Amino acid sequence: MKSIFLCLLIFLILSFNSFGQENFKVIKVNGTIVLKTKGVSLETGTVFNEKEDLLFRTDDASAAVINPQKGRLIITSKNHNLASASSNYLPAMYNISTRGAFENPEKLPDIFSGKYVILDRQQLVIDRAAYPMDKDHFFFLRYIYKGEEINKKLDYSGDTLIIDKKGLYTVDGQPIPSPDNTLIKLFYRNGSESMLLSEFNLIFPDTKQLGEEVKVILESMSNRSPSQKIAEVKSYISDQYGKIDQENLLSWLDKSFKLKIK
Q1: Long-range contact list for 230-236, CB < 8 A, 24+ apart?
Q2: pLDDT tens-digit profile of 17-27?
Q3: pTM reported for the whole predicted model
Q4: How far is CA 11 from CA 5, 67, 190, in A?
């Protein structure tokens, strides 16, 4: 009886491991990709076998998928041979470097460049010797809404600059869905002069949808350390959305998933 039970246990373990090795779970889809055998479109959370035939309904369609053994992969119409894919998990070491004040004023335009992601609300410590903040000295952002330029003064507390989606995307006291595009200009008001510091694309992801995507990643990394999980999430956001401030990410992960460096 014991030998039969042991054989059954081994069979179940092997079956489970085989399932984990052969199946991928969808994190995010851009465009439309259909499972040929089932006729259903891929979406966040969809599980499918690595040998499944995929139909790409749009030329530029792509999907971020993950497997516990092979890691996170991007599939496209030209690159979707998952059976031969190799692991691409990040290295085990992950350095957490807390960002302090911007001792070099030239760093500020470098940070606000390219695609820049904020998860609802971000706080940044500013070097007040270079950028004092008071009623005559402050930062503001400019974007286009319905063809008009909108200037929004940014809040601050002491030496901390605050960028809040709700306050930023409010016009005449009314919230707006979003500007005409993601292009933003960052200015610093120095008395009577306004200095353009940088132009960048400000990305506010739907944090509910992002939460579902991150949940898929974390579930596939249940045996990984918190630092490895955070590293993978940061890499994913950078790949799919844009660069993100580390402190903003750590705060959101702690609040949303109780995930933090111990």
Answers
A1: 230/94, 230/259, 230/261, 231/90, 231/94, 232/72, 232/89, 232/90, 235/72, 235/90, 236/27, 236/64, 236/72
A2: 443 458 999 99
A3: 0.85
A4: 10, 21, 71
Task: Return d(Cα 71, Cα 73) in angstroms, integer.
Answer: 7
Tokens of 256: 């949303």
Q: Please give the Cα distance from 64 to 75 (Å, whole number).
A: 7
Tell me the angle at which helices 207-220 and 226-240 cross, rounded to the nearest 10 degrees: 130
Give the residue-averaged pLDDT of 173-193: 96
Q: Which residues is 43 bridged to in the sheet?
A: none
Contact 120, 207 (CB under 8 A): yes
CA distance 6 to 54: 38
Q: What 3-state class would DSSP assign to 191?
A: coil
Kindly provide the b/e burial profile for residues 172-183, where b requires at least 16 CB atoms within 10 angstroms of the residue's own CB: eeeeeeebeeee
Q: What residue type is 197 in one-letter code?
A: L
Instruction: Give residue 184's Cα distance to chain centre.
Output: 19
- Six-digit token pair at 49? 């076998």
